[in-house]
């Protein structure tokens, strides 16, 4: 039997699973706490792999990890979740330990790859995937190829500048789409408006979540509704830019914030129609939700290892 091991590295958990060829159902699956701020993350990762290792059967390992990272050298550059992994060659180190090739790419690219191979994007040749949660991540399939770029840093779709005078993004630069349309960005806007005296059923609170704002919006709260309308508006501008660059046949939305549905997507579609360079981009354009949920990172890592080890 020949097996591929897929790894999904998250801020709270590391998941490992092994798959037979042509299958997306794991033979074995292990989930372990990453304890990202405590030394020994690599050792915890290696023992998780060891726990499902079958000598002589594993042919390759794929890893989905938060970036920025260099997929060409298998090195994590600096990931905010795991402070000890700065310029950390995780793929070469695992490869040395287990004696098989190891392939690495960022989690958003991997989720896009997984949706294309196994999920909502099956059969499409040109796909843009966006995950909207605490940040905004992107993955692009262009003409049946995963877009990685020269340095492996392509498709950072959340860090496209929408307004250079806009609010600060999590990355430190102003006005990226993530600074308008991510969950924390929506909450920050609501808090600012509350402090400015806007009437709302919500109270200013640094821990306010996009889910709480969505609940208030569904009860008809005008500030909550306008906060999602604003996020959707800026998201539409960003996606109009992506259409002009990538000309996809499908847009797939993952991440918690995208689950609010029409609150975000009605204003998004209106803004997209207004901003798009030419209406032909919208012909036969499928706009849909991700199908793979929490397994997208693992399945993307599996797809990457299969693709690269062919
Ligand atoms: Zn940014």
List key phrases describing it.
310 residues, alpha/beta, 5-stranded mixed sheet, 9 helices, 22% strand, binds zinc ion
Give a structural overview.
- The protein is α/β, with parallel strands linked by helices and 310 residues long.
- The protein has helices spanning 41-52, 90-98, 107-118, 178-181, 183-195, 210-218, 222-246, 262-275, 296-308; strands at 3-9, 13-20, 28-33, 58-65, 69-70, 75-78, 86-88, 102-106, 127-132, 136-142, 145-146, 250-254, 286-289.
- The chain has a five-stranded mixed β-sheet, sandwiched between helices.
- It is globular and about 65 Å long.
- The protein binds zinc ion.
- Residues 159, 169, 171, 173, 176, 178 line the site of zinc ion.
- Zinc ion is lined by residues 159, 169, 171, 173, 176, 178.
Outline the secondary-structure elements.
Elements: E1 3-9, E2 13-20, E3 28-33, H1 41-52, E4 58-65, E5 69-70, E6 75-78, E7 86-88, H2 90-98, E8 102-106, H3 107-118, E9 127-132, E10 136-142, E11 145-146, H4 178-181, H5 183-195, H6 210-218, H7 222-246, E12 250-254, H8 262-275, E13 286-289, H9 296-308
Parallel strand pairs: 1-4, 4-8, 9-12, 12-13
Antiparallel strand pairs: 1-2, 2-3, 5-6, 6-7, 9-10, 10-11
Helix pairs in contact: 3-9, 5-7, 6-7, 7-8
The structure holds zinc ion.
